[in-house]
Design a protein that fits this description.
Blueprint: H1 4-15, E1 24-28, H2 33-45, H3 50-53, E2 54-57, H4 68-78, E3 82-88, H5 100-109, E4 113-117
Parallel strand pairs: 1-2, 1-3, 3-4
């Protein structure tokens, strides 16, 4: 395999298909720094303004972790604009375990492609 960053680029080449209104690429705000750089460069590669195309999901004020219900609410509210959601299964900074089934289901219901970076999830037991 390649480096994780190369693999993320390969994933985005295959699965990030911006079209008409569905151009947004969603990551968590506290994504691993090289993941953030990869996403930004890939948006630019597609001819998009990275500041407009990329959505960085943030926890509620005063909290450190994203709530599943907030991610699902975002998808219900704005999912028709999302081409690809790329989240870490476990956030490298907070150790937060994302609810992969619930978020994937909500993303698919919104018509988005959902990808999971499981690099920091290896060896972590489930709930």
């Amino acid at each position: 395999m390649n480096s994780l960053t190369v693999n993320l680029h390969l994933l985005m080449v295959s699965f990030y298909r911006p079209h008409q209104r569905r151009v947004r690429l969603v990551i968590e705000d506290s994504a691993f720094p090289s993941d953030s750089y990869a996403v930004r460069s890939h948006a630019r590669f597609r001819g998009l303004d990275a500041d407009q195309a990329i959505v960085r999901l943030r926890p509620r004020p005063g909290e450190d972790c994203l709530r599943t219900e907030d991610v699902v609410a975002f998808l219900e509210r704005e999912g028709q604009t999302v081409a690809l959601m790329l989240l870490g299964g476990v956030n490298y900074l907070t150790g937060e375990l994302m609810d992969i089934p619930a978020i994937t289901s909500a993303g698919h219901a919104a018509g988005a492609v959902v990808g999971w970076d499981l690099a920091h999830a290896a060896g972590r037991p489930g709930p």
